[in-house]
């Protein structure tokens, strides 16, 4: 008899964008660089999906219900998204190429330890102000 599926872990995260054409290229580059796979949903022109090998997925969707044009991470709600990165070499590569793909580095003067001396990470902001933290683990 198999054991039940765990009740913890990320199923999916949905991010809203004011302009998919502006934000999608940055997210596509980042997620595929991290090894996530892009999926297209036929007939859904205002959304994109990237799936991790653990079957969790990230959705980026342009909705008519979006208010404003920039994320407000200092208000109530999500401050940032943190994702694991396999090693420092990939982190350095993402840092080097991120700006060409629409990412603005945050806390550059403290890279790679802006989160503390025992924490190796890169912090970036997408074209609409959504912050991502990429953490080297293991």
From TrEMBL:
Q: Which residues form the VOC domain?
A: 9-137
Q: From the record, give the transmembrane residue ranges.
A: none
Protein name listed in UniProt: Glyoxalase
